[in-house]
Amino acid sequence: MRLGLDVGGTKTDAVAVDDAGRIVGRVRVPTGWGPDAVARTVLEAVDRLVVEASVPRTDIRSVGVGMPGQVEPGTTRVVHAVNLGVEELDLAAAVAPQLGVPVRVENDVKAAALGAYALHSADGWGGGSGSMAYLNLGTGIAAGIVSGGELWRGGRGTAGEVGHISIDPNGPECRCGQRGCIEALAGGGAIAERWGRPGALPVRDVFDAADAGDPEARVLRAGLARGVAAAVRVLVLTADVDAVVLGGGVTALGPRLMADVGAELTASAATSPFMRSLRLDGRVQPLPAGSPAAALGAALIGVAHDTEEAFAHG
Amino acid sequence: MRLGLDVGGTKTDAVAVDDAGRIVGRVRVPTGWGPDAVARTVLEAVDRLVVEASVPRTDIRSVGVGMPGQVEPGTTRVVHAVNLGVEELDLAAAVAPQLGVPVRVENDVKAAALGAYALHSADGWGGGSGSMAYLNLGTGIAAGIVSGGELWRGGRGTAGEVGHISIDPNGPECRCGQRGCIEALAGGGAIAERWGRPGALPVRDVFDAADAGDPEARVLRAGLARGVAAAVRVLVLTADVDAVVLGGGVTALGPRLMADVGAELTASAATSPFMRSLRLDGRVQPLPAGSPAAALGAALIGVAHDTEEAFAHG
Fold this sequence. Notes:
five-stranded mixed beta sheet; alpha/beta; 40% helix; homodimer; 13 strands; 22% strand; 2 domains; Nucleotidyltransferase, domain 5
């Protein structure tokens, strides 16, 4: 049995995965604030799985944790996890002594990419031989690329940072200092900041206001579709992934978001036989609401290198 | 001994590579026009290597051929090799009977990427464990991505097609039908077409005219640097390659091109600590003039899957 945890800003999603890759237990616990509380959250989530999902402690072979923020390649050190109040934390050092099994840590978007691949590879992406990008639409925008079941890691930890590719020299300023970045157009944080009105779900407010005819909201909403469509094009034209799976907080907009993105992809391909031949619209799909992809992916971190036998993903 | 051929529009570059990956012979022959003549060119290049480089025929284990145009994945069929007058050609079917050894065919940019990686991996890119993109600046713009010595193939043959990523919605029209594509700004063909004056090397004429103060030439020259810099950013932010190696006809401009691209990367990072942290300027390097990268890479096609023992690249 392998446990996987997705540590989010408000809650931590945890699953137990059997040796066939099936999820056999799932719990959610509130996430603490700051390094000590985050480490306690991880321990609590494991305890809850042991009790509520009847996972015997002696059956646990590893614990994988997906964390927002940067994870230094090859280490279990997380830095700049701003949403969690964590400037720096070696998570394995903090929890492995109590857990007594290997603890692995990965960036949450990369973990979600692994999990989304595992969930979907049975659905016709080549049964594990195909490739996929998971595009996370949250406060920021980043992607994880998976091919043949393995994450594309790249050299220095920036693989999938498509949010900071500029697609318009006259576009809005990005928090990174460039102009017209995909994230400046389509990031939930950038949209909320430009919208500038209070509300629990600013991007949803923007969609509603655009539907009601507000011209500023229409511009922001069009920019979101433009940015997401550009990210899809970048991922297909650079990495030639078979599918782009959308996840993250902004995908709570559901069909309204997907319709906008699909329309943008179709419109921008109207003048280009080459772009039409890529059939981008058909390659984009949302992660279902409540999907355990990120926690499942966390459980799968490093598993391919653990075992000689193939680890079948259900 | 393995032979590798880079079939170009005017000449074919051919090398013999020993089992340690060293180039032990090299010849160049003029390329014929049309499918039959291209097949004869391949046979002639092999004959010339046998004679001039003293390669015993019985020592030849395979012949790899890099071709402009699309090579259908998993086949030796080339389609749309417009520069060669080839609409369709199964090259292995045409030459393997005479050669009596396995014949492999790959797109020339992808072959050059493999060869550039082999030539440079000894220079500190992790000794074969690092990653690299080869960015071909020719009539069009395309890249090949290599990681750990293996080409990133992607799902449908469009991996590395960064030339058709739009970076400016108000940019020039691209032959693909979109606007502001990297290739529309930086492709040798697009620049020659917009320059519109006769000349053997239109891009060099544009550089000279820009130096002489011609305003139209300055716009075109600035667009070339913008497009190349954008391609470098896309490759690093999506695939996180350790290095981007520039090759192709436009790199004949040498230090003038590199200085423009370096200045553009530096200027665009001036406002962005994030982009500065990527140190893109230091990751870009040109392939030396006359480099045998493409022919060497053609010799290496499929070699990793042939042999259990590691094939050392000199």
